[in-house]
Structures are given as C-alpha cells and as structure tokens.
Amino acid sequence: MNIYSDSSHTALKYLKDTEVNIKNILLMTDNFNIKDSLWNSAFPFHSSVSNNLIIIADSFNLSLFTLINPCPTRYSDMAGELNSVIDLMFLCCGSYELDYYSIHPGNCLSLDHAPLSIEIPIIEEVIQSSKIMIHPKNNQETAFVEEVISSFKSLDTSVIDDSDKLESIVNQLEMIIDQAWKKNTKKSRISKHSKQWWMDKYSQSLNNYRASRSLENWKNFKKVVKNVKRSFFDEKIQEVINKRKCL
Q1: Is residue 71 over pLDDT 80?
Q2: How far apart are alpha carbons 69 and 132 in whole angstroms?
Q3: What CATH number is given for 10-117 in this structure?
C-alpha cells in the first residue's frame, strides 16, 4: 500500500479515524513526513504522530524493520536544514521473505528523496499452455454423451444391497466417463485468442475467406461470428437469470 501523508498528516488522520478494511497487505511505504528518533538516531525527539503511525501499521499487521543501510531519505538543498528520514517502509509481520528493505541515496537523480527498494520473491509457477477439452455443440460432445448414456444403460444395477456393491457401481460409472472423455477429447492450445464461443465448424467460413480473400466471403464470415457470439452470450445471460431466480 502506497501512502503519502502531507505535513499536516492528513492521510494518517484519515486512516486513524476511518475503519479501513484492507486485507493481506505485504507492505506500506512512502513519504510520511514524520521526523522521529525511532527511525533516525540523529534526530533527538519523539513525536506522538509517530505513535499513530505505528498503531495504524500494527492494525495492518505491519512493522518497521531494521534497515540494511540506515541513512537519510530526504536531502535538503537549503542552508542550515539537515537531511532527514521521512520515507519509511513497513513490512508484513512474521514474514521471513520480507524482513528488510534498502535505501539508495545514490539514485536520487534530480529528486530530493532517495528511492527505497525491497526484493519480493515470486514462487515459480508452471503456466499451462494447453488443455484437454471437448468443444460444446460439436460431434465430439454428441459422441461423448451418447457413449456415456449407452454404457450407463448396460450396467446391472438390479441388486445393490450393500456398500461394496454400491462402491463397485460408482467405480464403474467413473471408469465409463473417464474412458469416454479420453476417447472424444482433444488437446487445445490456450492463447489470448481462445474464445469459448468458437466451434470447429465455424473455421470453414474463415478458411473460405482466407482462400479467396473476397469481400463476399469476408461478410459471410463476419455474419457467422456475429450470430454465434450473440447466441452464446444470450445463453450465458439466461443462465445468470435462471441462477438468480433460484436464490
């Protein structure tokens, strides 16, 4: 969470007087405009405003951790005015990954504040690039449903008089669905162009245009897409309406 509190401490007063429901905050940082001996040993005084800041940070389960390289964060170009520490970073309590931050006084450039930085580890994640699926309203879906129904009908469920027989039937049902699924599914590559409303049979209209590059085929393709999308989203809207009626 990024907070800038002016010299009147407006942001801190708001957070102190307002119930702010923000969960899972990892850090809170920026210019708090508070000089205090708690984070600057060169400053001799302690401010009650600092207490408010600590209380606010604690309400978000955050703490001010020890700096790797303690030094001023604001550099004054006015004669007689000392450099100060007013940029702070509060980190999530009890976190082994987020337990320190750094100040970079050499990277101020034209600014009078030094940047603060922290390394946030990111867990390595395998991003799935393909999935096994059956496209709706096509031959594979019809074949899948028909095979499952046919196999279900052939099961002998006339005598299920104990838990073992019931479990056996359930296992057979699971195996039937699994086999029908594997037989009729195909691998589909996931991309930013993937669309739920697209079906294989619509590819023919697109291929016709690509082969001829004619305006007529392009219009036919756009018409097909328009009708399909309208039908798909009308169906989704109706599903939402039906669900709300059940609530």
Answers
A1: yes
A2: 52
A3: 3.60.10.10
